[in-house]
Design brief:
- Belongs to the phD/YefM antitoxin family.
- The chain has 179 residues and is an alpha+beta fold.
- The chain is built from seven helices and seven strands; from the N terminus they run E-H-H-E-E-H-H-H-E-H-H-E-E-E.
- It is globular, with a radius of gyration of 18 Å.
Length: 179
């Protein structure tokens, strides 16, 4: 089985200890963060000061317009399974339509809600971006069945072209279905 190569810059904690300025240069040249690995696991992410300030500015802008986001929320399709109304509300709170999020963050929130992860191995986020580019959506399946029905969430999103990071998504609509 061949492992997929992560399509973002990576380095080891040892290299960071030797020369942190080289890692910052790598981040600046790539225009994205550099993932720092320690024993084959991500230990952290390094950004340049400019990248960090850009992220803070984007976060500030998102927080400054919460009323705009709530007016753009799209009601999921009605689900007839008992208890799903509360679950649908929880899902919409976790993934606010109109908001920009990283693909990794979307996946982590979906997993926290009981859905099966989209990330597999090192290339998981890249696979999510490819799925989004090909279909215009990310489809998640709930681990547990509800009333013998499979619950599926469709997240309609698009790549955020204003972000310098490759995995930033703008969530447009969320549909919750049973099949």
């Amino acid at each position: 089985m061949e492992l997929k190569k992560l399509e973002v810059p990576t380095t080891s904690i040892t290299e960071v200890k030797k020369s942190p300025m080289d890692v910052f240069s790598q981040a600046r040249e790539a225009g994205t963060a550099v993932y720092v690995f320690n024993r084959e696991k991500v230990a952290g992410v390094m950004l340049t000061q400019e990248q960090y300030e850009t992220l803070l500015q984007e976060l500030h802008e998102l927080r400054a317009r919460p009323s705009q986001q709530s007016t753009h929320e799209v009601e999921p399709e009605p689900v007839t399974v008992s208890g799903m109304e509360d679950f649908s509300h929880t899902l919409r709170k976790a993934l606010i339509t109109g908001a920009t999020m990283s693909a990794k963050n979307v996946d982590e929130r979906m997993v926290a809600l009981g859905f099966i992860t989209k990330k597999t191995g090192f290339g998981g986020v890249v696979d999510m971006i490819h799925e989004l580019n090909e279909t215009g959506k990310l489809v998640y399946q709930l681990r547990k069945k509800a009333d013998d029905k499979t619950v599926v969430a469709e997240i309609i999103a698009e790549h955020d072209n204003n972000s310098h990071l490759f995995d930033k998504l703008i969530i447009r609509k969320i549909y919750l279905k049973t099949i």
